[in-house]
Amino acid sequence: MRNLFTLLFTLYYVFSFGQLERGFTYVRDIIPDLEVELRYYTANNFVGTPIEGYESNRLILTIETAKKLKLVHEALQEQNLCLKVYDGYRPQRSVNHFILWAKDLNDTINKHIFYPEVKKKHLFREQYIASRSGHSRGSTVDLTIIDGNTGEALDMGSPYDFFGEKSWVNYGKITDKQKANRQLLQTVMLKHGFRNYPKEWWHFTLRGEPFPNTYFDFPIK
């Protein structure tokens, strides 16, 4: 009877809280003190509503990516700095949500915050969003650096997910301090095996990612 109860409880847990695909992990199982704020779990994003597929604020990545990210986090801690992650694995259904949103050109509730200088109809053409995202392969992460004492994010010269030239890594019209902060993030991420997307200072993908051609769709629970 006890074994039956244990089996039923296990099945309940799996179906209630979800089961990760093989090769994936909850990142806080590897980096317990990592700061995570999944923006697409909230309404604080360019769409203006929580995004389909984000059912909890639990960061998921491939195991290889999480292990490399731990090395980055530990290197920054030596300078009393830490990582803060805004997005990791992203289900394909979430990308599909972006596609549907993009078709409604009248829905511009957060345009003034996230894309004031870009027409909504041009977001795909200018590659700020895409119908297939590297995030859905599980080895891409959006992040910044925060102060280890205050938890405040370092000034990178533009907010996370700002669609415009001032988010480009090599944008020149920012202060020397902002440039230095961007360079610090670039240096530590590249050192530990990540490559950057040049139009987004926050966006990095693991080199040699384990699922380069697979776009997953399991929800974040």
Describe the fold and architecture.
With 221 residues, the chain is of the alpha+beta class. The protein is built from five helices and seven strands. The chain has helices at residues 2-17, 63-77, 92-103, 111-114, 176-191; strands at 24-26, 35-36, 60-62, 81-87, 140-147, 194-197, 200-206. A five-stranded mixed sheet has the order 2-4-5-7-6, covered by helices on one side. A hairpin with a 2-residue loop joins strand 6 (194-197) and strand 7 (200-206). Mean pLDDT is 92; it is low at 5-17.
List the SSEs and their pairings.
Layout: H1 2-17, E1 24-26, E2 35-36, E3 60-62, H2 63-77, E4 81-87, H3 92-103, H4 111-114, E5 140-147, H5 176-191, E6 194-197, E7 200-206
Parallel strand pairs: 2-4
Antiparallel strand pairs: 1-3, 4-5, 5-7, 6-7
| H/I helix tally | 5
Structural class: alpha+beta
Fraction of residues in helices?
Answer: 25-40%
Which percent band covers the strand fraction?
15-25%
**Overall 3D geometry?**
globular
Mean pLDDT: 92
Strand order of the biggest β-sheet: 2-4-5-7-6
Question: Largest beta sheet, briefly?
Answer: 5 strands, mixed
C-alpha Rg, in Å?
18 Å
Give the topology string: H per helix, E per strand.
HEEEHEHHEHEE
